[in-house]
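Ticket #4471: structure export looks truncated?
Reporter: QA, pipeline team
Priority: medium

Steps to reproduce: submit the single chain below to the structure queue and open the exported record.
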Amino acid sequence: MLPMVAVFFFFAWWPILRSVLLGFQHTNLVDPPEWAGLDNFAALLADPLLWITVRNTVWFVLLALLLGFPVPIVLAVVMSELRRLGGLFRVLVYLPVAVPPVVAVLMWKWFYDPDHGLFNQALGMLGLGPYPWLQDTATAMPSLVLEATWAAAGSTVLIYLAALSSVPGELYEAAEIDGASIWRRIWHVTLPHLRGVLLIMLLLQIIGTFRIFTEPFVLTDGGPEDSTVTILLLIYRYAFIYGDYGTAAALGVLLAVALGIISAVYLRLTRKWSSA
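Actual output as written to the record:
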């Protein structure tokens, strides 16, 4: 196992340790680095854009959980009830995952085009719009959430479908004999058996949404008026726009610490419920 451990350390843990070290240095990755101590963290916390970025990221996380978390559950439950064309619907729901992320985002960028986009053209037939999807501070972030949900829901749906296949069929038969409606069967049979999977998927989605980058980078570049600048996009700007790799690494360290704390608190709060 030693070669496998060495490869894992080199490609997984060494970059993490190197990033932590960069957070305490002034470096452009060309000249010899200078020890900065906590200067990068102090400069980062004094940057007013950081707090705008944190607010934007938290807003994206909340919207993504509100929309993106229940949608895969509903789709999985509906598809599990289908007796025909179940395989076709599985392929269709997973298809967005197979599309390369940048290609999918560029496609949605055309959908959101205020003049010739698909959404405004379709709404125009109903006498609605046009709407400035990505050009307005009020609608830009929800537009990103909509695309991100479409792109990521497929894999989550398949995980829920796999979990649903382990639910004993006798429970559904007993519920039907007792006259339970489909909604009562879902509430009293399906969701309790998905409890453990739901808790894990919720934690993974919280972590994933905090690390959103492709959508704001390609669709809006953080605009309009910095309303869609996320933490990872700010890290990218510090490193590759400003050439300040030390501050970029410092922000990455702070994000990792914050996600670690959130995960620990979440697991602590849900330990009793997940084992019930």
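Status: closed, not a bug. The export was complete when the record was re-opened. Leaving a note from the reviewer for reference: The beta strands are 25-26, 34-35.
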